[in-house]
């Protein structure tokens, strides 16, 4: 019988430098993973910071709304108070820098006509004028001539993009209000501005009956809500 010999297979030689290439490849993958995690953390931190800024802006806007409501209740709360835009006080509206500034006058004496002119006396001097309803300083709010001046450090509340029509109508409809600066201990500063508009001087086109005829219909329309889901094409 022939004797079989079992031989071990020959081992293939490992290419020189393979361990170095594998190590470099793994390091590149680790660097890519680290960069991706770093980019993700930067995005999260940026989003968190934007959220804090947005929260502060909303808090400032809420505070401005509360201040505006307080000034409105204080100035126009009594039954003997009337409101009107600044353009009612001047025959030459072109001389007014803020024609849409809303003012409050008192009409305690029924026998005397309310004096809306810019030469009227203020309430402190026994006159009819009470104040303007805007986020200006106290001295400007009580100054009857304030509509003839531009507001300082103002924020545009009604401007292009919110008013339709020709350039002249847009320019005449612009509304700005002075900004009030708030100091914060850690996040820098913030500002707010507010301006009150008189709804009684506007036509509500969302009502079912947009042209009331009788006095009863006119009075009823003042407290009627608009149509739900009202749209204008």
Helix count equals 4
Q: Tell me the distance between the termini.
A: 105 Å
Structural class: alpha+beta
Low-confidence stretches: none
- Physical arrangement of strands within the biggest beta sheet: 1-2-3
Major β-sheet profile: 3 strands, antiparallel
Task: Supply Rg.
Answer: 35 Å
Overall geometric form: elongated
The string of secondary-structure elements, in order, is: HEEEHEHEEEH
Share of residues in strands: 5-15%
Number of strands: 7
> Mean pLDDT across all residues, rounded?
77
Q: Residue share in helices?
A: 25-40%
Give the topology.
Blueprint: H1 18-76, E1 81-85, E2 102-106, E3 129-132, H2 138-141, E4 154-158, H3 167-173, E5 175-178, E6 180-183, E7 189-192, H4 215-222
Antiparallel strand pairs: 1-2, 2-3, 4-5, 6-7
Question: What attributes characterize this protein structure?
Answer:
7 strands; two-stranded antiparallel ribbon; single chain; 4 helices; alpha+beta; 233 residues; 3-stranded antiparallel beta sheet
Describe the fold and architecture.
It is elongated and about 140 Å long. The protein has four helices and seven strands. By secondary structure, the protein is of the alpha+beta class.
Q: What's the gist of this structure?
A:
This protein has 233 residues and is α+β, with helices and mostly antiparallel strands. The protein has helices at residues 18-76, 138-141, 167-173, 215-222, and strands spanning 81-85, 102-106, 129-132, 154-158, 175-178, 180-183, 189-192.
